[in-house]
Design goal:
Blueprint lengths: L2 E5 L2 E3 L5 E8 L8 E6 L6 E6 L6 E3 L7 E6 L4 E6 L8 E7 L2 E2 L3 E5 L2
Parallel strand pairs: 2-11
Antiparallel strand pairs: 1-3, 3-8, 4-5, 4-9, 5-6, 7-8, 9-10, 9-11
């Protein structure tokens, strides 16, 4: 059964960094494009970033471009989201999606 599990969220101060992980089981991540999404309280889920299966190209929402970096470790079957210079508006539950499968999300809270 295909599953993804997000981890790495937490409470951090503005300006600091955090790395989220998306670990897959039941399928091979690098065969599929993987996306990170987030949902802030009271808002709709929005796309944050994705990495292509074909050439590993990466794409980012304007709101995180230059601050977030998506990467993939094929040996660990895991995709990461490195988040730098975090802002309070980055506070959300972060989800990854691969092969149409959603994880349970991991909460990131950016607050002083």
């Amino acid at each position: 059964q295909a599953q993804v599990v997000e981890s790495g969220g937490g409470l951090v101060q503005p300006g600091t960094s955090l790395t989220l992980s998306c670990a897959a089981s039941g399928f091979t991540l690098n065969f599929y494009g993987i996306g990170w999404f987030r949902q802030a309280p009271g808002k709709e889920r929005e796309w944050v970033s994705c990495i292509s299966s074909s050439d590993g190209s990466t794409h980012y929402a304007d709101s995180v471009k230059g601050r977030f970096t998506i990467s993939r470790d094929n040996a660990k079957n895991t995709v990461y989201l490195q988040m730098n210079s975090l802002k309070p508006e980055d506070t959300a539950v972060y989800y990854c999606n691969g092969r149409g499968v959603w994880g349970q999300g991991t909460l990131v809270t950016v607050s002083s």
